[in-house]
What does this fold into?
Amino acid sequence: MINENNNISYGNKDKKNNTQIINQNFIDNKNINFTVTPWEVKGDIDYNKLIEKFGTFEITTNIIEQFKKITGEIHPFLKNKYFFSHRDLDWILKEYQNGNKFYLYTGRGPSGLIHLGHLMPWLFTKYIQDKFNVKLLFQLTDDEKFLFNDKNDLEMIDIFTYENVLDIIAIGFDSAKTNIIIDTKHINYLYPISLEIAKRITFSTAKSVFGFSNSSNIGMIGFPPIQSAPCFLPSVIEKKPTPVLIPAAIDQDPYWRITRDIAEKIGYYKPAQIHSKFIPGLINNGKMSSSKPDSALFTKDDPELIEKKVKNTFTGGQPTVSLQRKLGGNADICPVYWYLKYLFDNEEESIQRYNNCKGGSLLCGDCKNDLIKDVKPFIKDIQRKREKAKDMIKEFMIDGKDLGHKDKK
Amino acid sequence: MINENNNISYGNKDKKNNTQIINQNFIDNKNINFTVTPWEVKGDIDYNKLIEKFGTFEITTNIIEQFKKITGEIHPFLKNKYFFSHRDLDWILKEYQNGNKFYLYTGRGPSGLIHLGHLMPWLFTKYIQDKFNVKLLFQLTDDEKFLFNDKNDLEMIDIFTYENVLDIIAIGFDSAKTNIIIDTKHINYLYPISLEIAKRITFSTAKSVFGFSNSSNIGMIGFPPIQSAPCFLPSVIEKKPTPVLIPAAIDQDPYWRITRDIAEKIGYYKPAQIHSKFIPGLINNGKMSSSKPDSALFTKDDPELIEKKVKNTFTGGQPTVSLQRKLGGNADICPVYWYLKYLFDNEEESIQRYNNCKGGSLLCGDCKNDLIKDVKPFIKDIQRKREKAKDMIKEFMIDGKDLGHKDKK
It folds into this structure.
């Protein structure tokens, strides 16, 4: 079906040979003290330096204007730069305007329950699906989560996969335009494509991009093409080369980098990407982590627990009220401020909150109360939708079949 | 389903740590001048040295007697040592006698058409299926043939897969007790098991056993667990640890070696093996190769072509009739003698043929005529059965579905 000589060329060139060695850990560099890989995010992330290191492109005001021409508005996640970086997004938008519709593709590694940090790129993905009227592939990489962590067994991951599927459906994606792919269950949709990809990536390349070593298991080494395959599945489904746009946090970029490098060789478009930042947990800095349960607000948490977690969280405020009044707080490092900004405050409210915090007129307790007031009904609404989702699973699965799970609640 | 603590121990221990470095090419060793890997067989193979190098076990007269107790006879392939080596065959027979039935598992890499050399282990596999009344998994590793050869594309391999399936069915396996697995089509049956295997094999081990390097593609590195998975699929199907016996040429041993090393760690029996020798092509020495079309007798060859090929073939005879009469021939290196011995002559006829050749009273033309007389109706019969096989495909496939191939004849 795929013509190997069909060399498609378009859009932005990649800034460098993607397969060159990428530092796995930027901490060695004296100007950079953070780590961003598909398996680890830590440190104080400088997103401008990340764009430079990964060789991606900033989302410029020009691109945001291109969006506005189609959607009639500017989504807050673009305005507030939660989505900040891209590859070929301008090309995707131009193709769309010329009538060449893209597929969305995003994913989730089901190693735990879903928290607010996970939902943010999904909310944006739903927004794009609605505004552009496009199809979505949503991949759950249960195989990856099994292979990359000694402690994970398939039975445990299976439970999280089921729970995560309920959250995905609860977000409100259009079942007629969304296919969920669970790797261990729907591998037959991906495997032939993954072979075409795997054949064109040497161990040497995979080692450079992902940091594999002699002690890596061969499942890890063989895995990346399984995550690449949905980039090309739309072309197989539509029986013609079909553009794909991937909304995801920027830590997944290494996967798309190697995928882009081989795409044209096998007659497909390079997948375009739109990269989000990470949102910190409520206690620790860094990406909100589902492996540190106390640090995150989970969609399955009881509203009372949510309230307790927010009240106990780390903020950017001063140790005492009088110091806060005198010195002001630091909203830039405050997850309570960030959650309000990204999920609940409008632009004006957020600016006012930032200034009042800095000026010392706003106390941490005030912001925490605001967040509790907003987040409790938000989570309750998701919980209602998760219940309904239990009867909608087969409408979303790529094979049209149910998962056969009993409710684990 | 599988209990990780269920440590099963039994039968022969492996002679050495299977994962130690195995010479990929024995030619470096001054006493050994042959190569045997899953991808290459060349040189003058000394099967006793192969047993020593691979750490397998000779099939002793004791084991042959164990067979006879069950089957009431000694199969010619055991008597004439076409099957010459094993791992845990004695254990498999003992378990069988105690009521613990095994599954057979064998396979084929569908990179070309089927010739007589391929049929021999299949004929023995069918014999075991009939005599022991056991189930068989037959795997077609179309993915392997794609990944390990730059020239192969999936479309071409798909055609050979279809043709090979017809040959497998033509052999006469019992459809009620046989499941054919084509990797790219039935990967969903293998993938979850293959992950359990892949997680327990490091790149370091795979490099030692298979000779992978930095320039190996990551599909090759990720492949071995896909060939290992059918060793454990019977345990999943039967919902209890189930012994497996693999009849196959000894070049496949590295796959089973790594599989045996991890089997008990994940609660399965180590797969047992019975290894065959290679049968030379009709022109070249070494394994009959489907990539050298002139050298082999294919099941799709017209009977006239078969006759022509046999007449033109290399033999162990002398250059002239008078020299043959004077010096005698060398049956040990003669593929015409071998094919008659392994497929058509009975024991007595074969000994007589050997002695008459050595003594100079039998000429190459005589043996060639004998082979032509036997092989033409043999191949015609297979061709009749291949035609019937076209309507039987779905009875054999593990998913019960047809392959949807038009006849490519």
Confidence is low (pLDDT under 50) at residues 1-12, 17-29, 285-289 of chain B. The CA atoms of residues 131 and 250 of chain B lie 23 Å apart. The two ends of chain B are 45 Å apart (CA to CA). The first strand of chain B starts at residue 34 and ends at 37.
